[in-house]
Amino acid sequence: MEITAVAPKFLLQLISSAFQRCRLSEDLCRLSVLLLHDQSTDKDPSITSVSISDTGIGCNLEQFQDLRCPREFNGVKIWDGLLSVKTTCFTDDEVYCYHINLEDYISNKRLKRQPSQAKNGAKFSGTEVSLSVFGSMDVLMAPILGFFQKMLVLHIPNVTMDLMVKQGDSPGTQTQYVFAVNADKTPCFTATNLERLKFGLENYVLRHGNCLDTMCDYCFSEREHLKVGSGIVCHEDRPKRVGGTMEVVIVISDLLDSTQHCSRSCDGKTEVLYFDNFSPSPVPHFALSALKKIDWKSYGLILANVNDQDGHVFLEWENFPSFVQIEIALHWYHNQHATRQKNGPGINLVKKGIKSALNDLKAKHEGFLLSSHARKICSYVPDLARSIAGLIFSSTDLDFQGDCLSVLGFQPLEVEREAVEDCIQRKIVTVIGMNERKPQKDQEAAPFLFFDGDSETSYFEDEEVEGEYYSTSLE
User: Fold this and answer.
1) Please, are residues 347 and 290 in contact by the beta-carbon 8 Å criterion?
2) Which helix (DSSP H) or strand (DSSP E) does residue 270 occupy?
3) Rounded CA gap, 210 and 126, in Å?
4) What is the pTM of this model?
């Protein structure tokens, strides 16, 4: 690990704790991060003062018991090792102040109480954590900005966030807002966590990782053109083990031809975002294993490589079209608030969630994410539909012709042959897709061609075929 990554990683832990305090509040809350680089002559110019403040539920000092960050790394000083904490709850009459020395590994000696500040009858809650870090502003700001951009994917409705940078401490010094999210951009409080995750990942895609304030017009035309699949799998509570929920959202988009003019357009790789208990997190090893164990070929995809860059994971595909972008978000959270709960979902639960999201995409978009075997069958569908339509229209039995058209949903006297061919083609493709979504042991051959639209019966066998690739259409 590079020295430049040690201090930012510790800061992200503090910011995540502040975000959780806001999330758990029933009121609208604000999370603010201020980076102050004091360039006065009496201070070390390499020192950046950091203030993390929130208006959440108030701080539980146990949150700091497990924090670890060395003062030095490879002989180079990172920070001074001292946290200054101010916190209060609505029911408190004072703002309590503490100094926490993280270098002292004896818990009861880490914390030193400081004089409290009277609230004078005011009713508010919140926490401010301050520390001094050795490092340039850019090194500290980049990971915090990335953390905020990913946090937006969760789309938590009651939290606003801002990241501010201030050069110098003089009265005339201006504060620059590097990142700000207003409350009016958040969704409805009644939306489920999965609905927010879907909406948030859509925005993440449309705004190129939330680097833009609005949708990129070069790459996308409308939000509705995104293909979105979601899955949710629950793990029940057990003795000595808190249960949890794994949510998965997959967004697939077809980019516009004008995307060549966009400097932020995708490079064909799939970014995997992982959230652990409502906080961005490096992708854990069990999730990596689950991604590798998915039978991607049954969805028309060939996984070429899993690129793990210190927890930042990108999937690379073979024979993947340049105009398609895929994003995946995984979110695991416990069924009840457990600050020290360490258990994760496990490989099988992650696999089930991903497969559920992929199957949801298949169910919503006919002819989409089909295996190569299914697409091979689909290649015969136009000719088959043309032949069936020819049999119908060439028949001299008007009753037979009328019954066939009626089954297809047409009025016998108001239909063109091309429309009938298209309808037959869509129905056959739908049956192929239905059959693919069944477990392989339940798939069966078609006993007849026409079927009731309400039937769950599928008519094509599926089998594993090598050399599969991605396709979004039957053409």
Assistant:
1) yes
2) strand 270-276
3) 27
4) 0.78
